[in-house]
């Protein structure tokens, strides 16, 4: 696919200029290397810096729920303008899931869909092509990625640096959008989820051992929670003091409690955008944990989050024939 | 202004039920030292009048304002103690019960362990009672009308009783006629009254009663609301016959191009009916119905040059363009009298019901011996060449009952007697036949049952104890393979005819009614009553009552008794004109509710709705609880992402300290 930057910026400028739009959230080049930063565009002029490239890994849907609803000054009118948001396929599932959970209302957002042929794993990329200070550009080029740095173009095979979430992606095209940019991309042959499969092949002790090792690394920075588009409870149980469900201390027991609690709170909600794993400074394979639960929900309850905006929220629905064989 | 809590703790001996494994005096001594506890006492029976007086006296003399009763499960006596303390001037919701019987003394053998646990349970209750809030009960108006679902003998009886008391009744029946299973029966045990003769007058009464609106061939589509105020929507299925014009003359059925082609439901498929039909001659209402699946005109769009029924109907009642209609009304109470399904004998393939025409079920036998049945009351079988009277007849009991292999552990309660009755009726019609009954047990428990059983045995009917393992064919005969377990003799009994005494099962379509009214099933699959002994006609849904076999297998007298009981219970809100609503309902903290509506979708009682409120100038959606509908189950609270919805008396701020006092939470 060729993403036409001109078209993207033109559309974004038109949307950002709309009366009903407060601001538009998109991607822009970061300050150095492979970095990409979120851009908050409030007028047509601001759209000139927007990009969409294989480096645009971040799921911007998380900004939808971060905005605070401020009290309206006496005599003032509430600001009910919309937020425009650029989404890839996976990001759009977060939007859909937010709609299902009424985290946002459909008329509060303008969704600009960007069909996505897959983004890169920046860590893998940096490993193979070390990051330099100079900002780098990247493009899709047929079956390859094109890295443009210092006027030099490097062709990199897609499979070499494709992000894991993209190897497993079933929804490269946005499932919800008001405006779609460019043409839909064709879905690709899915890789087997070897990570989850490998874990499932282990016995209980083997799995416990694996996760004990992983959770032991956790530094409890809560980056995973903060970046997650679906971790948006204003009153998170991790922050509660009375009762203190999870203690502040960083140790294996509390780390496990935290990670398990988060995984369970995301069961049937996680849309597998992989942001938690990307931002984890301790390199805990959180995606594996979430995908395992997503697989359970899919197999047992025939439910997939973030696909149908009219679906009943999975964790808040009950059917008399729901399986319960796992209840001891 | 909140008063400082002054707690009284009352520990019950429950005779020796509690005191044999819990040192109640030690518990009282322990409780005395707990914070805010003013007085702690023990008594042999706290629920007795002197026990209650003890509490009341302490309230007056010591100024207690919170009460903990450590005794049995709150299920039975919470209302007792609520009433007692409210009589002494304390808000009835300032009561907490510590269950030291079912959850403590009954499960422990060691006194030390039992006492230690009782002390923990008491300290947990004391921790909570101090934090309870005063609640007020409210009342709302009740609609003086009732809905009865199902017009078999149970539904008819309930409807008649309520209507006779002067209340409006909507009687909804799924099939074209009222009467239900009882109308299909020939004679009734043990008195041998003719079933139709005693039922049809009631059927006619139900249809003609000025207070009863009979909605036959109709189904309840939707029930919303709560006790006293149910909004009901009923689908009246198209009969394709104008109800008001049809005179019931029957010319249409006689002339129907597909006359007598289809198995009659009423005759258990042994008789035939036309595509336009009256289920049986005494059907009420006596109005014909077209079966749209089999009617040539309705299924194929063409019936000769013109449909014959239309040509022949003098009243001009045939109306092929009729459509389903909907009626809506309001009632204060609902009675579920949806009946049962006979056990499907195909599920016991070893008895060959599907393979051998001379293996029939009890329901089929009823039609066969009935004078209005397909054979005019003659017991005949087809031996492959001609119709003959059977010489050797076997009846088998407990088919599909007391049989875990088909998932029915329960006794169907009627088979012992109906099989005995059928043996008697066969003896009546075939004086020379050899009749035997294969049985596991004979349960002749009702009034006149044992006498009847005795009479049948004296009529030369052999009772052989044994549960047949197989029925197979040998020549023209059926062979019942069985062991006579009284003499340990294996038998291969050659007979002409086998009657399977099939049991009663929950209706296959009961799920629809369950969902409509949010009812539950007991382990046997029938509708679950609110309490097996003390509230056998009530359900967990207030204002919804059970009558007849929908609640469990029962015979006609029991069904009628329960129907009358359900009618009397249903009339309580109708007669009172008001219903008291539960005070321990969920409440929403509108300041923190984030409007996700998880609680709305999880609520089993549809008690929560979303409303728009102004929050600091912003319009936001928040949940709001309809207190009349809420049962205080707490499902919403579990689903709430922001702890914004909590049941009163069971708030986190109240139960977490209770849990903490047990020593499991810091």
Word description of this protein:
The complex is a heterodimer of chains A (328) and B (666). With 328 residues, chain A is α/β, with parallel strands linked by helices. In chain A, strand 1 and strand 2 form a beta hairpin. Chain A is built from 12 helices and 9 strands. In chain A, strands 1, 2, 3, 4, 5 and 9 form a 6-stranded mixed beta sheet that branches. In chain A, helix 8 (204-217) packs across helix 10. Chain A has 2 domains: 5-68 and 81-180, no CATH class; 194-315, no CATH class. Chain B has 5 domains: 7-129, Rossmann fold; 145-237 and 324-339 and 507-578, FAD/NAD(P)-binding domain; 251-312, no CATH class; 341-505, FAD/NAD(P)-binding domain (3-Layer(bba) Sandwich), CATH 3.50.50.60; 586-647, Alpha-Beta Plaits, CATH 3.30.70.20. In chain B, strand 27 and strand 28 (489-495) form a beta hairpin. Classes of the chains: A alpha/beta (328), B alpha/beta (666). The interface between A and B is medium-sized, with 25 and 25 residues.
What is the 3D form of chain A? globular
Please give the most extensive interface between any two protein chains, plus how many residues each contributes: A-B, 25 and 25 residues
How many helix segments of chain A?
Answer: 12
Biggest pleated-sheet summary of chain B: 5 strands, parallel
What structural class do the secondary elements of chain A suggest? alpha/beta
CATH class of the largest domain in chain B: Alpha Beta
User: Terminal Cα separation of chain A, in Å?
Assistant: 50 Å
Quote the CATH topology of the largest domain in chain B.
FAD/NAD(P)-binding domain
First-to-last CA distance of chain B: 29 Å
CATH superfamily of the largest domain in chain B: FAD/NAD(P)-binding domain
Return the average pLDDT of chain A rounded to an integer.
92
What is the name of the CATH architecture of the largest domain in chain B?
A: 3-Layer(bba) Sandwich
| Main sheet overview of chain A | 6 strands, mixed
